[in-house]
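# nightly structure sweep
# worker-07 picked up a monomer target from the shared queue
# config: single-sequence mode, recycle default, output format = structure tokens
# input follows
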Amino acid sequence: MIDRSIPYYNLILKCNEICITPVLLPEGYSFQTYNKGDEKYWAELEYEIGDFSSVEEAKTYSRRNYCTQIDELKKRCVFVVDDKCNVVGSCIAWHDLKDKATVASLHWLVVSPKHQGKHIGLALCQKVMEIFKEFEEAPIYIHTQPWSYKAILLYVKLGFKIQKTDTFSHYENQYDKALETLKSILTESQVNQLVSYSE
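# output follows
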């Protein structure tokens, strides 16, 4: 479970050039794209990890922010299911505004705590990057925060760089405060890696 006692600061990452790597899911898992009504599974995942105070709140958020563009969602929302067809992870290849232009942005990488540690998050990110590549959308932005430090390390491996000043949507870039927080969580080697992947 995410440690939400870690201070929240906006951290912005950007990938300028997509490097496609083989997508490998563990045995017994498979990908599934969004079908009408699947927002309930997304909502259950997000509630399970504590991003929303109730499943209903998460459903409302999804319907307001994604389900109004259902054709896009069918092409851009990816789920991972287990061998019993239970949804265990999700990620969305979405878009946001930067100034007045539309930019690609990776949204809501989530894996059920019961299925973490199996590289499902990595496979989801790789699959979403394939979608961005297919639509020829780059650069790709991510908004995250220090308590998602495991995901941050994953994003860097996929070619994302932490932005010192750049931002998108409505987010204030809080690079300095976020990095100071990460220094109290990660090893010196990991912090040095993140700094080397900052621009």
